[in-house]
Every structure is written in structure tokens, then in C-alpha cells.
Specification:
alpha+beta; Rossmann fold; Elongation Factor Tu (Ef-tu), domain 3; Alpha-Beta Plaits; 5 domains; seven-stranded mixed β-sheet; six-stranded antiparallel β-sheet; 16 helices
């Protein structure tokens, strides 16, 4: 395989809803490029993409697949991304390391929620977009209606380059208005017959060409000037205008393909090779220090590792993009993230489950290697001539579905954790949390199917039987009023004993409160004389403010750290539900000690018990985590979705429309989100999506608080 230079390389992400035909199209593309000799099928479980057992089991893409084609002296690196929103991590990764998005639209259904999600991600990253209407051979396909929907949602920038002569079972021809020719295929697809446009299609073709010419001219001032003068552009001028318009997102060309019959694929690849921007024409990526990195083959060598695949009989396959310079087999590089040294072994151009050995890869290219010692997803390897560059530009969406995970055989817990960490290298949107607070191992993902896939792999690949449970909720406890308590800890056993007495007052803490001067409790005034003050920012949020107001040496200063420790112990396990407590001010104002029997343990226990007593008298409240929820849903399902949310104690904050969908904003307790992805999919037939973000802690309703307290009491009895 030849060495491709930076100005001969194009990197493309293949996106679309589940079922839009990405894997089938990818198969046709590599077949047309001669990478494979026979096209596989998803049903036959023999495609270049979707080669992992879990993908073949479910018939869905789970991981992104990196492959390349060579076409007209150009190298096209293509990443086939999963369509399900549960596996959005693959699409996000791909868009960050590529320069062009191909978004497939299912010819049966038109733009779907997956289409919209893909487009939103391209918009965030300012990536060029080409729409491909696929499956034109289906009987219920209406191209004109789909084009109308695309233009309605994404604006007049959606401009057709092609349109089908007819759709349905008889589909075999398109009109290409860029070259103004009719392309017709035999039943086996492949290379088309190119003919003049028939008379009955000429008016429609000329009308669409006029729209394409105008859109192409809009991408360049000189072309626009010529357009105003002549109302026409040459084919080469149109290509140039489209290329510039793609970079600025002023044009979204619409193409026609039928991946299953290999029709339109060659023409698409010609367009990708001839018109789509090269790496060198795209805005430069910034490293972690904010410096622009030029994709220059003669520059310092720097590789960014964006994906790790675990394959049987091989182990880790590390996928990277050459951000700068040139990399060769045998190069010695330094891991900027981990400080370790690495020697690059064999280099490969990616081809799905296969790999093609290459001598070197230049800036802008994508490749893979194996048997690296200490490289993880997200790491950067630099040559000795490179500054300490790092890249951290990939931002993954927040998790939407969580489950507590447990090895059925507890002795396999450590093995399970090792497997989870290994799988997270393949998919960073699997997030594993060992919660000290909840005393559970929590695995977070993008949806129920996402975590079901993890379970399948754990049980079938790793041979570890696991079970999922609904995770506990990280409640918080606080107080609503002032309270006072005294506690004496006294224990005598033989010679030395234990003695410590603590008098304290607690009250709710708010930021900026002035130190207290006195408290009226009943008919008695307690004057405060603050000796010292500690403000502790709690790991779990909120504060503990600890004031020492002891006078007259009633408690020696050396016991104050023990008193604070006792209070912190109870803050870590609140008296009501065992949850973390927050936003409390504690004033220790008096106490007693014994010249012999007092020690740190005595005062720690006395403080802990005094705090518990006061807490229960201080109007204790349980707080629950509240999340901001955003749902994108077709208008037809809006009523059902709103009714469901109201049943989940959600507060609707607003409604809007976005890209042809209704956008609903709400605040909802985390408890009510436990199985929301399943419910939403059921309500809308999988046509809605949602995102969440932590908002705040709010009081739980009183009936729920009482139920939580009762539940905690029962749990404590069981432990006893």
C-alpha cells in the first residue's frame, strides 16, 4: 500500500439512526474499492463491520468500525458508527477525529431522532455534513417527501445533488444534477450506465441544478459574483463552491444510495474523493494547552489514541490519528499522559476486522497498531522533537441509565472490576463507580440496551455471571432549625475508664452567615465566645462549620479534633437514613472532662452522640438529587410523554421546537429516572431521546421522607 500524504487523505464519519443501513453501505464501499472480494450481509453475520459476537447476537452495531478505501489516488478513512443513541460514544469519538460527516437517512422513515442527534453533534463540532437517502428500493420510500422534511428541519442549505427517477422495488436509476447525467444500474449494482437525461426529467433536473448552482456559489465570493453575471457555473466551479460550502456548513448536499444493491456507491465515493475537503483544508485542532496543531507531515510527531479494541487472539488494538509529523514502525515515542516510553511495532491501515500493513503514516491519517505496553484511550504519544503535547478534545455526553452491578459469585468481584475497566477502554461512555456512600458498584451508561450489552459481554466473553440491581439514591440530610444537646460518655472497666461530656448547639448553615453571639433556648440565654472556627467543604457537597466556644478550660483544646472527628463520622452517616449530611453549623460551648479518664475516644463518642440527638430535634430533612431533563420527542407523542413525566414528580419548565421535534425541559428526581429510558422508548416506539444533567438537591415530600426513615430503621435492625 502506498504512503498517502496529508493532502491525499480524507477522514469521514458514517452516521445515522439504527436501521438506516450504515453497515451495509460500508460493506458496499470497501467492496467497490477492492478491499474485500465479496460483500457480506448483516443477516449473514459476515460483514467487515459488526464483527464482534455481541453485534452479531443483537444485529446492531455496538462499536464503531474504522476502515479505509482507496479511490482515485485518495485515501478515505471512514468510521462506521453505531446508530443507536445508547452507543453515542462511538459517534462522538468519530466526529472528533474526522473532518466530514455522512448522515444516512432511512428511505422508509425519513429523518428520525437518530438523524437529529447526529446532526446536533456535527453542529457542536462544526463538521461538514452530507445527507444520504438510503434504501430507495423500499416500497414506502418517498424521496420528495424526505427532501421536504430535511429542508423543513435543517433549512434550505439541504440541496439535492441527485434524485431518483423512481423509488420502490423498481429503483435502478438516479438523475445527477452536478454532472447532469442519468445513472442506471443493472440488478447487481456496481458501475452504472451513464446517459443523457431523458426529456421527461429535464425540467426537474434543470430546476434542481439551478438550486445547486446558487448554493455552490454562496460558498465563495468570486463564484457568487460570477453567478450574478451568468446565472451558471462550470462543473469544476460547482465542485469548488460545494467544497468551500461544506467547510463553512453553508451547504448540506443530499445524495441517493441503495447500499443493499450497491447502487450509487461508486458515484458517492467519487464525490468524496473529488469534492469533500482534505484534512489540510479544515480548521486546525488545538492541543490541551490551546495551541493550534498543524497537520504537517514534516512537523514534530504526535499521535492521539482515540479508540481501543479488544480482539480474540490479538488483545488490544490501539487506533490513533496522526496529529502531526510522520510515524514509522520502530519509532520510539513518549506517552505524554503516563510518562512511559513506547516503541511502535507494526503499523496498519484499518480495514474493520482486517488490517493492511503499512510502512508509515503521515499527518492527518488514521491507523492502528498492536501490543503497546501502556497506552490507553485518550493518551498522546510524542516524538522526541515534539513539545509535551496532549489532546483532550473529546467530551462525552452524561450518562442516562445506571445500575448497581454485582458478581453472583462474590469471589469474582475483583475479576469483574478488571473486566469492567478493560471494557471501558473500548467504550468510555461506560462509567464505573465504586460508591463508598451507597456501598455499591455502579455502572453508568447511555441506556438500557447499552448496559444489557455490557452484561452479555461480561457473561459470554469473560465468563462472569453478574446481576443488575436498581442503584440506591444518594440522598442528603440537613436540618431546618436550631437545637441543643448534651451527652456524657462514661465507661468504667477495671482501672482506667472513659469520660467525656460535650454540650453543643447546631443550626442550619447558609453561605455568609455571621458568627453567633448568643442563643435563646427556652427562657435561657447561651452567650457565645468564639475561640476558633473551621469551615469544611464536604466531598459530597455543602459545608460543615465547626465553632469552638468553650470557656474556662471546661474541655481541653487537645480534645477538639476528636470532637470534630465524632461529628464528621455522623455527618458521613446521617441519623435519619444513613445518608451524608450537609450544611450544618455546630457550636461546642461547654462540657466536662476527667483528669484521668478523659481521652480522644471518649470525646469522639460523646460528640457523635450529642450531634445525633441534636440533629433529630433540629427539624431534620431529607434531600434528594434533582436533574435537569431535556426530551426530544415527535409532536404526536408529546401528550403521552408529559403525562408520564407528571406521574414521575417532574416539573415541566418549558417547551420549544427544535429540528422538527418538540423539546421538553423539566426537573425530575433522580429516583424517577431509574428506568426512564425504557419507558420513553416504549411510549414513543424508540423515536424520542433525552439527556440529563445534575441540577440541585431539594426536599423530598414528607411521605417519602417517612418511608425512607422507616426503610433505614429496618435495614439497621437486619444488620444488628
Amino acid at each position: 500500500m502506498k504512503v498517502y500524504q496529508t493532502n491525499e487523505i480524507k477522514n469521514i464519519a458514517l452516521l445515522g439512526s439504527a436501521g438506516s443501513g450504515k453497515t451495509t453501505l460500508a460493506e458496499a464501499m470497501v467492496y467497490e474499492a477492492g478491499i474485500i472480494k465479496r460483500r457480506g450481509t448483516v443477516e449473514g453475520k459476515n460483514t467487515m463491520s459488526d464483527y464482534f459476537p455481541v453485534e452479531q447476537e443483537y444485529g446492531y452495531s455496538v462499536f464503531s468500525t474504522v476502515f479505509h478505501t482507496e479511490w482515485n489516488g485518495k485515501k478515505l478513512n471512514i468510521i462506521d458508527c453505531p446508530g443507536s443513541d445508547d452507543f453515542v460514544g462511538g459517534a462522538v469519538t468519530a466526529l472528533n477525529v474526522t473532518d466530514q460527516a455522512l448522515i444516512l437517512v432511512n428511505g422508509q422513515y425519513g429523518p428520525e431522532v437518530g438523524t437529529m442527534n447526529a446532526f446536533r453533534n456535527t453542529d457542536k463540532l462544526k463538521k461538514p455534513v452530507i445527507f444520504l437517502v438510503n434504501q430507495l428500493d423500499r416500497d414506502n420510500c418517498d424521496f420528495d417527501q424526505i427532501l421536504h422534511q430535511l429542508q423543513e428541519v435543517y433549512g434550505p442549505n439541504c440541496v439535492p445533488v441527485q434524485y431518483p427517477v423512481a423509488t420502490g422495488a423498481g429503483f435502478n436509476a438516479i438523475i445527477d444534477v452536478l454532472i447532469m447525467k442519468k445513472l442506471t444500474w443493472k440488478p447487481e449494482g456496481g458501475a452504472p450506465t451513464i446517459e443523457d437525461i431523458p426529456a421527461d426529467q429535464l425540467d426537474k433536473a434543470q430546476e434542481m441544478k439551478a438550486a445547486l448552482v446558487e448554493a455552490a456559489a454562496a460558498g465563495d465570493d468570486a463564484l457568487m459574483e460570477k453567478f450574478f453575471e451568468t446565472e451558471d457555473l462550470s462543473e469544476d466551479e460547482m465542485r469548488e463552491g460545494i467544497r468551500k460550502g461544506l467547510v463553512t456548513r453553508s451547504i448540506f448536499p443530499v445524495f441517493c444510495v441503495c447500499g443493499g444493491k450497491d447502487m450509487g456507491v461508486r458515484r458517492l465515493m467519487e464525490f468524496l474523493g473529488n469534492v469533500v475537503p482534505f484534512v489540510s483544508e479544515m480548521p486546525k485542532v488545538q492541543n490541551a494547552a490551546g495551541q493550534e496543531v498543524n497537520p504537517d507531515a514534516d512537523g514534530p510527531t504526535s499521535l492521539y489514541f482515540f479508540k481501543t479494541g479488544i480482539e480474540p487472539h490479538i488483545g488490544e488494538v490501539s487506533y490513533f490519528k496522526v496529529m502531526s509529523g510522520t510515524v514509522k514502525s520502530g519509532d520510539d515515542l513518549t506517552n505524554a499522559d503516563r510518562g512511559s516510553k513506547e516503541r511502535i511495532g507494526t503499523l496498519y491501515a484499518c480495514a474493520g476486522s482486517n488490517r493492511v500493513q503499512v510502512d508509515q503514516l503521515c499527518a492527518g491519517d488514521i491507523g492502528c497498531t498492536v501490543k503497546l505496553k501502556d497506552v490507553k484511550t485518550g493518551n498522546t504519544l510524542n516524538g522526541k522533537d515534539c513539545a509535551d503535547w496532549k489532546f483532550n478534545f473529546i467530551k462525552y455526553p452524561n450518562s442516562k441509565f445506571s445500575r448497581a452491578i454485582k458478581a453472583i459469585n462474590e469471589s469474582e468481584t475483583e475479576k469483574m472490576m478488571a473486566a469492567l475497566n478493560k471494557m471501558r477502554q473500548e467504550d468510555p461512555t461506560w462509567v464505573v463507580e465504586q460508591s463508598k456512600e451507597l456501598r455499591q458498584i455502579i455502572v453508568h451508561g447511555q441506556g438500557e440496551f447499552h448496559l444489557r450489552t455490557l452484561k452479555w459481554r461480561m457473561e459470554n466473553n469473560e465468563k462472569i455471571q453478574i446481576e443488575y440491581q436498581e442503584p440506591k439514591i444518594p440522598y442528603r440530610e440537613t436540618i431546618s432549625k436550631m437545637a441543643r444537646a448534651d451527652y456524657r460518655h462514661k465507661k468504667q472497666s477495671g482501672g482506667s475508664g472513659q469520660f467525656g461530656e460535650v454540650h453543643l448547639i447546631i443550626e442550619p448553615y447558609t453561605e455568609g452567615m455571621e458568627d453567633p453571639v448568643s442563643f435563646m433556648i427556652g427562657n435561657q440565654e447561651f452567650k457565645m465566645n468564639i475561640k476558633s472556627k473551621e469551615e469544611i467543604d464536604l466531598e459530597w457537597g455543602g459545608k460543615l462549620v465547626f465553632l469552638n466556644s468553650v470557656v474556662g478550660g471546661a474541655i481541653d483544646l487537645r480534645f477538639m479534633p476528636a470532637i470534630l472527628k465524632g461529628i464528621m463520622q455522623r455527618m458521613e452517616q446521617g441519623p435519619l437514613t444513613g445518608s451524608y449530611a450537609r450544611d450544618v453549623r455546630v457550636i461546642v460551648y461547654d462540657g466536662k472532662m476527667h483528669p484521668v479518664d478523659s481521652n480522644e475516644l471518649s470525646f469522639m463518642l460523646a460528640a457523635r452522640n450529642a450531634f445525633s440527638m441534636a440533629f433529630r430535634e433540629a427539624g431534620p430533612k431529607v434531600l434528594e438529587p434533582i436533574y435537569d431533563l431535556e426530551v426530544l420527542v415527535p409532536a404526536d407523542y408529546m401528550g403521552d410523554v408529559m403525562s408520564d413525566l407528571q406521574g414521575r414528580r417532574a416539573i415541566i419548565m418549558g417547551m420549544d421546537s427544535e429540528s422538527g421535534y418538540q423539546k421538553l425541559s423539566a426537573k425530575i428526581p433522580l429516583k424517577e429516572l431509574a428506568s426512564y429510558s425504557i419507558a420513553l422508548s416504549s411510549l414513543t416506539g424508540g423515536r424520542a431521546s433525552f439527556s440529563t444533567k445534575f441540577s440541585s438537591y431539594e426536599l423530598v415530600p414528607n411521605d417519602i421522607q417517612q418511608a425512607l426513615i422507616k426503610q433505614h430503621e429496618e435495614e439497621m435492625k437486619d444488620e444488628d
